[in-house]
Amino acid sequence: MTGGELHQSLDHEALGLLTGMHEAGSVEETVEAVADFAKYAFGASSAAILLGQNPKRLEVAASTEGGDALVRLAVTDSGPISDAFESPAAVVVGDITAQHRWPGWPPDIEHDLRSLLLVRLRIGQRPAGLLLAGHPEPGAFDTDDAAVAHIVARHASVAVAGSRQQATLAEAVDARKLVGQAMGILMERYEIDSDRAFAVLRRYSQDTNTKLRQIAIQLIETRALPGLEPPRRTGDD
Known about the structure:
By secondary structure, this protein is of the alpha+beta class. It has helices spanning 3-9, 12-23, 27-42, 67-74, 81-86, 143-190, 194-208, 212-222, and strands spanning 46-51, 59-63, 91-93, 115-123, 126-135. The protein has eight helices and five strands, in the order αααββααβββααα.
């Protein structure tokens, strides 16, 4: 199934969820929308999004109702997480209670799930996490679901990458504004120009091994930087 075929096969509610996934603002809102869409698209009882570049260090970014049990069931040393993280294909567990692929799995926890679907998320050429879906009936996910999972994962990866980029840009704009305010404080207090004010902030950042943005916030909030030697006024050179 192609992306266009998936789009044509979705009903009005699913299209709304898909649109919401791409139009969400923050990374948090995006992964929540991805989980909601995955749950609906696969007819799952629960879904979850794990983010990270190491299968042993994945963090739960979002989950639908019932997703906690899904995550506890899947995220174990002996389960399908590592296989799904390394596999270009989606991993489908038809019946958790009857599988023999992963000895010692599933863990002895209380849950009502029998079927699992796991598919890798990628941003560029790098693994970015996993999408999980669960269902209380055995055989709930088939080869068609596995094929659709790739399309959903691509949509999810694009949405997450876009939201991260927007967050980075917003943070950069915010940092520039903060640094500008801090420079203004130094310029007024020490009668220096903007170039010298920025040089003072940059040197203080290097000397204290502190990010420039944090230095700016500290100066704005406290009106002081501990240990800062007053710079010479512009024109005193």
